[in-house]
Each structure stands twice: as C-alpha cells, then as structure tokens.
Amino acid sequence: NKQIIFREFAEGIPKESDMAVKSAQLKLKVPEGRPMAVLVRNLYLSCDPFMRLRMGPQMECCFPPFERGLPLVGFGVVQIVDSTHLDFEEGELLWGLTTWEEFSLLAEPFTDAYSLFKIKDLDLPLSYHIGLLGMPGLSAYIGFYEICSPKKGEYVFVSAAAGAIGHLVGQFAKLMGCYVVGSAGSKEKVDLLKNKLGFDDAFNHNDEVDFDAALKRRFPEGIDIYFDNVGGDMLDAVLLNMRLHGRIAMSGMVSQYNLEQHQGLRNLFCAVTRRVRMEGFMIADYFDRYPEFYEEMRRYLKEGKIVYVEDVVHGIEGAPAALIGLLTGQNVGKRVVAVAPD
Ligand code: NDP
User: Fold this and answer.
1) Alpha helix locations (H) across the chain?
2) pLDDT digits over 29-38, tens only?
3) Residues near ligand 1 (Cβ within 6 A)
4) Is the ipTM of this complex over 0.90?
5) What residues does 97 pair with on adjacent strands?
6) Which residue is closest in CA terms to ligand 1's atom 11?
7) CA–CA separation, 51 and 66 (whole Å)
C-alpha cells in the first residue's frame, strides 16, 4: 500500500521532502474488531489549495494541521473493498474525504454524513466527482449564485480564473448574461479563457505591475461582482474598482497561503463608501444542497452549456509534486491524481 506521508511543516512553498512516498503491508480486509469501518481503494485523489493550510504551521483560522508521520487527507473518488459499516457495501463507488494512499481504512469521522457521498450515475467520468460534480463545483455554484447575488448584465471579475473553481464561475456568469473578465497566471490560461470558455476578456496577472490600472482598462465602468480566489494585492486593487452595492465572494486567498504573514489591505475603506458586501463562505456548510446542485450540473453538461477542464497527473508517486504544482499555478483546470483509474 503506497502512501503519501506528511513529514514536515512547510515553510513557504512546500517541498517534496515535506512529504514522503512510503510502502506498507496491508490486508485487503477491515481488521477484526473494527465495526462501522470501510476499506477503500482510492481511484482518484484531488489536489486542493486548502491542503496547504493543513501543512501549517502558522495558519490559525480553521484547518487543523496534518499529523506528521500519517498520510495526507484530501478529497478522493473511492471504491469499497470491504465494509463492516451498515451504510456501505463492497463494490460501491463514493466521493469524499479520504487519506492519500492506495488503500485507506476509514472510520468516523470519515464515514459521517456529508463526508462520503455515493456516486449514483456512471455515465460521466468518475474523476468529475472531485471536480465539477464535487466540492470545487459546489463552491463555484454556491459562491456565485448565492453569495454574489448576480443579475443579468452585471460586470464580473474572477481571479484564478483558469483553476478548478474559477473556470466554472466564469461560465456560470456568462450563462447569467454577465460581462466576465478573468485573471490567470500564463498566456496558455488566458487563451483558454478567451477562446474556449467564453470569457469576454482575460489577463495574465504575472504580466501586470499595476493591478488597479489593469482592472480600470477592462472595467471602465467598475466591477459589480468579484469572485475572489486569491486575496492579497488583487483584492486590494479590486476594492478601488467596485461599483456601488457591489458584492465580493471571499472564496479563498491562495496568494497568501505560502506566506509567513498575510498581507494587509490598504483599500478596505472603499467597501464602506461604495456599500460593498464582502462575504466569506465555507462550502462544508452547504453540503445539504448537493442533490440540487448535482442535478443542475448534469443538466448543464448534457445541454452542452459548460466546458469542464481537467488536469490529470498519473500515479500516486507523483502526488506530492502535483500538489506543489497547484500552489505555483502549474495546473490548468481541476488537478487530480489518477491512482487506480477506471
Ligand atoms: P485552483 O485550481 O484555482 O488552483 C490554484 C490556483 O491559484 C493556481 O492554479 C494559480 O493559478 C493560482 N495561484 C497560486 N498562487 C497564486 C498567487 N500567488 N497569486 C495569484 N494566483 C495564484 O484551485 P481551486 O479552484 O480549488 O481553489 C481556488 C480558491 O478557492 C482557493 O483560494 C481555495 O482555497 C478556495 N476554496 C474555497 C472553498 C470554500 O469553501 N470557501 C472551497 C474550495 C476552494 P494562476 O496560474 O492563475 O496563478
């Protein structure tokens, strides 16, 4: 059983040596005396920015650090190999939280409600359940439709726009009839946004020295909605460009996750004068909305309304580098690790 073990708290951008690939012997059975447990084979693992917050040590707010010497924890698509749990049967396919190894023995809290979801339809790729049809998709859906309260014709800006959440938010905004601009970290990503995903405009944040000027060029009338995935200087510049009664969905601050100390904001007072609503959200609070979201996403896909971009890395040995790459912008779309693909 190959495992990705968390070794050391990360300083700055995590290094591969902060993790280790190890092999351990494993019987493909739930051990005797372990009721309400499942042994699963991990088919796909998801690389997500919040995992950096768990690599600590300085993040205080909400995620407990990973335990040194144990496998990392993240979302995955799994198949039950053996079960002593009344709710799960051998052979069933699920998505949810699991451990970063080929096989995982999962018990509470992994088996609680809203930790593992059964996959009921097999007509779409299984990996979609940790992207478009999983936690990032739900974050894009709730974050945009609920937190941003969008209206047709509004001016929308999305950062990390070629990432798992961002590329979906931009397409939802276009479906709503908004004007949409995205920022991303390379020419390849900018081209994807403009030419394949229907964004009205996009720019490479690494090419811009003055974010305020870059936004003013693209939004001469100002921004109604900002879907913030990055925080930091981009958020500060957006505040200077918000329209009256604008909304900012605070999805995440990936530009800050590798920093020892988070940057402050200089322009926050603009939110007062322009009556801007800034609202953070944690998607775990909305898992009860999953069934409604799932049906809606399937409909979007069937009707060809949405393009989903996946970035697949093959083999569990590549998982540490895949996760680090996500934090340095190497992914295009949703990054997943195929461990034992269907
Ligand atoms: P992405 O697929 O967007 O991957 C992260 C991206 O962040 C990279 O591709 C990179 O893109 C960008 N990035 C990395 N470093 C920087 C930087 N210094 N400045 C600007 N951009 C940077 O990840 P997700 O879509 O999964 O997550 C997006 C955000 O949403 C994150 O902040 C995450 O924490 C948050 N999130 C929040 C949830 C919630 O419940 N609130 C749930 C899930 C995610 P580029 O090449 O464009 O720089």
Assistant:
1) 50-53, 135-141, 166-175, 187-195, 211-218, 232-239, 269-273, 290-302, 319-327
2) 999 999 999 9
3) 48-50, 136, 139, 160, 162-166, 184-186, 189, 205, 229-230, 251-255, 281-283, 326-327, 329, 331
4) yes
5) 75
6) 329
7) 9
